[in-house]
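To whoever is covering the structure queue this week,

Two jobs came back overnight. Logging them here so there's a record in the thread.

Job A:
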Amino acid sequence: MLGIGAIWGLIVLIWPMYKQFIPHQITSYLAKKANKMIGWIFPYVHIKFPEYIEEGLKRSERYDAIRNYLSTISAADVKRLKANESKNSESLVLSMDDHEEVEDTFNGVKVNWSSNVKEIQTQTQSDSGRSTTDEQRSFTLSFHGDHRNAIINTYVDHVLKEGKAIGLRNRERKLYTNNSSQEWQPWRAARRWSSIPFHHPATFDTLAMDRDKKERIIKDLEMFSKREDYYRQVGKPWKRGYLLYGPPGTGKSTMISAIANLLEYDVYDLELTTVKDNSELKKLLLDTTSKSLIVIEDIDCSLDLTGHRKNKKEEDEEEEGDEKKSKGDGRQSKVTLSGLLNSIDGLWSACSGEKIIVFTTNFVDKLDPALIRRGRMDYHIEMSYCRFEAFKVLARNYLEIESHDFYEDIERLLEEINMSPADVAEILMPKSDEEVADICIERLVKTLEEEKEKVRKLAEEEEEKEAEKKTKAEEAEKRKTEEEENKRAEEAEKKKTEEEEKKKAKRGRTVTFLQKMVSAKKK
């Protein structure tokens, strides 16, 4: 009887001839029969759940849900565990380490979960010609084929539902910022965004703004968050745009934090200047989760997105200039206005739901109307200078008072003086433990009065400058008039002299003629 070594040697000898001389139709048929036979011997079904889906463009939410679920059953049975954080989780998740297995039972049916990892070689964008080793992770669910329907139709849904619930219980909101594409991996969405826990304390209760205005904004936000079915019914992506505009220090960033805290959303702070082109922008937006705010602050300064769209000639000239610049700077952003519009409002905007897009700007008039039209930026919110209603909120926040003897003076002064809520808050903030509310309020009144005096002096100086300018203009006009009158007088005198000269010459010619006539008669 042949030994195992001899059998393997025979297989090694025969296999190349089999592949070379046997027609592929026969090999395909034999492979099908072999797979069917293996299925009879090993009647198990395997389902793979990769960490990244859609050709690596997006992290799988199912993978995170499965990891959360398995963390509850693997901690007691698996010897090697991996401690990490689930996405948006503030609790430590103990999951199976790589190449570990765990068994689960559902309605009397036993299933097996395994954690897999595959190393791949990838080319880095920053180091030309060099490759790095990266890892593709996945979970594999294995079960007997007799229970296919029960596992696929019931158990998988149960796992995903339980895993999602665990993630929600441990959820911690995050603040994300986009990384340079040089840090991306070409096959997956890893490292496109970096994040830290989001713990900003701002709420609408502490936001310095008119109460009625705040209530309208809150109502609009809450209405949006509850209208998934309505958006589907009218055929629109479940998203909404907010434009926050106003001078610096008026609370635009604080408003963003208040919105995130009200709706319990993650915040994606998108820095357009680090995005290489429109394609990268789409990939970044695809890698954002639902229930999130996508924020582009100071959009008027981010890229050339101001003014009206250029005509073709201007675009061609600008492209030539960009080509020259790109030779010296390979990281120059080529995100265009049309690319941004398509990303936030085109077909790609419908890829994931429940998102709010927020633009902020200090100069709304500079933005292209196409960028901020209704439908893209649905709600325009003016963040104005501090007025009395906003001041009362700040006084309650910083000094814990509801009224004061100086409130009437402050109300009058705030109507006359433009001061940002940030400046008012800084003045109201106690500078030591000994400073009481009276001192802070008096400091604000004094500052407002000083600012009013500055404004008055500036106005007087402007009036003096205008008066001086007007006087100079009048004097210049007077000199001009006098010069014109003198010029006209000189021209009239010159004309008169010329006419007298002409008359004198004419008389001279007449006398000469008469003299000639007399001389002729005498002859």
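Job B:
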Amino acid sequence: MINVSYSSCIFLKLIACFSLLVPIATVFLRGGSNRGNSDSSSSSSEEGYYGGKKHHGGHHGGHHGNRPPPRPTPKPCDDDWHAFYRPQGVWCVRIVAATLDYNGATTACSNLGGSLSGIQSNEERIWMANKSMEILTANGQTDSGTWLGASCTIRGCVWTDWNTVGTEGMLWAPGEPANLYFSPPCIYIYSLAGATLSQKPPNSNGFIDDSYCRGYKTINSYACGKVGLRNN
């Protein structure tokens, strides 16, 4: 009896001790779990701060800050060239002062990346004549012309720049062309120290004349043309 009671007492004490240890262990385990969750939550929060919305905003701003500025719109023509907007695309023209025969003007224009230009419209014809007059009078000349890109036979003249079409810009001076039956001539636009087409003599600023291709003493410039940017 005594041994049984003693053993029972010991057993009861062990149960009591175990019952005390279980809550403590539970609290300990829960505390460790909460602390782990807290750490995880903190890590997630920091991750969200740097990798979430705020970080995204900073990145977004940085993206705009590092984006290169927009490219400037390309010019339709190089400097010193004038743009004409033809139905077939942009055609760039430059009037160059030079006392050359037709072949010399052709070579000089080719060195600029172009070919002697034709005239497609009255707008082009008037601009070329006035620009030629402006350049040549600045050089002290008052009676001169500007070579154009054309090939002539007894049947007439055609443009040779592989771009100009039609005959609207081919306004002949009265009585011209006069040299088609004598030799294959070249043509030029007449430049005089005046601003209107009603001037006298008839070969006034803006009219076209034909000439011997080697006759260049009074033809002191050429019209060089080339294709510009077609999408402007």
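Note for Job B: Confidence is low (pLDDT under 50) at residues 21-62, 193-200.

Please reply-all if you pick these up so we don't duplicate work.
Q.
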